[in-house]
């Protein structure tokens, strides 16, 4: 900001400084956080909406939730609202990876998953411990269908312990089980 007057006329610099100061202040109310153009929400598959009984099973089984297309979409939307969707995205990418037949495709997908979720400072870096990261990187020297298994299990456990209980308490889930 000290260099601002050199780049901008002084009256304009004061105006910018005032606006920046206003933006940096702590908001007085939640109204300041309203997003005028939110991202398009993920469309939930209409035809496959679960019965309340089926949705009730999700409380006790993250696996059942993730295997149900409607459940997965709703869980991902919930995680997106909490800014933690990378975990579900990583899990889905690993499931897709395990279905890969071609060794060339496997190498290509492994590289993409590593760059997107595993490497330090990755755009959607998942929270795994150093040991798991090291094992995963070692597995990627010669990619196999199980290269990401340990990391995927760690992320599954994290979602099961942390994200699933919050999802089950969410309004969206509560509406599904009515």
At a glance:
By secondary structure, this protein is an all-alpha fold. The protein has 10 helices and no strands. It has helices spanning 4-7, 10-24, 52-57, 62-67, 69-81, 86-97, 103-118, 130-139, 149-169, 171-176.
Compressed to H and E, one letter per element, the order equals HHHHHHHHHH
| Overall number of strands | 0
Total helical elements: 10
CATH architecture of one domain: Orthogonal Bundle
Protein name: Regulator of G-protein signaling 5
Function: Inhibits signal transduction by increasing the GTPase activity of G protein alpha subunits thereby driving them into their inactive GDP-bound form. Binds to G(i)-alpha and G(o)-alpha, but not to G(s)-alpha.
Subcellular location: Cytoplasm; Membrane
Keywords: Cytoplasm, Membrane, Signal transduction inhibitor
């Amino acid at each position: 900001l000290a260099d601002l007057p050199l780049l901008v006329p002084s009256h304009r610099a004061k105006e910018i400084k005032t606006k920046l100061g206003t933006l940096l202040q702590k908001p007085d109310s939640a109204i300041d956080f309203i997003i005028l153009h939110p991202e398009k929400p993920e469309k939930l598959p209409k035809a496959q909406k679960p019965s309340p009984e089926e949705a009730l099973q999700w409380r006790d089984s993250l696996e059942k939730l993730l295997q149900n297309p409607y459940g997965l979409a709703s869980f991902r939307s919930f995680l997106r609202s909490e800014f933690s969707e990378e975990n579900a995205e990583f899990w889905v990418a690993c499931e897709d990876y395990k279905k890969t037949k071609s060794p060339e495709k496997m190498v290509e997908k492994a590289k993409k998953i590593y760059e997107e979720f595993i490497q330090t400072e990755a755009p959607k870096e998942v929270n795994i411990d150093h040991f798991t990261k090291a094992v995963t990187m070692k597995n990627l020297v010669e990619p196999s269908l199980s290269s990401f298994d340990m990391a995927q299990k760690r992320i599954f456990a994290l979602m099961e312990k942390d994200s699933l209980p919050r999802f089950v308490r969410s309004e969206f889930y509560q509406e599904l089980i009515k």
